[in-house]
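On clarity, I found the account of how folds are encoded harder to follow than it need be. Since the whole study asks how a given chain folds, the encoding of that fold should be made plain. For illustration, here is how one protein appears when written out as sequence plus structure tokens:
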Amino acid sequence: MNVLVWHVHGSWTTSFVHGKHRYLIPVTPDRGPYGLGRARTYPWPDNAIETTPEQLRHEHIDVVLLQRPEELHLAEQWLARRPGRDLPAIYVEHN
């Protein structure tokens, strides 16, 4: 299963990406809040893959894991599909 998930909370995401799936982690050149990529302070497995917004459009994604409201718009923009309508989505609220 291919899971699109943003790196938001380091320890939470570290635990999440240690599952048996393929995790696509958005990365942008500035590594800003919506494109941090892989963790640099925690060991992540090889199945957590940094993927640019341009690459995401061509990826087969089975589910989007949303953690912030802005990610819904970003996912729609980057994937040309609307999470929750065109592909399954799960929203996880932290804190």
Notes: The chain has three helices and five strands. The chain has one domain: 2-91. The first strand starts at residue 2 and ends at 5. The longest helix spans residues 69-79.
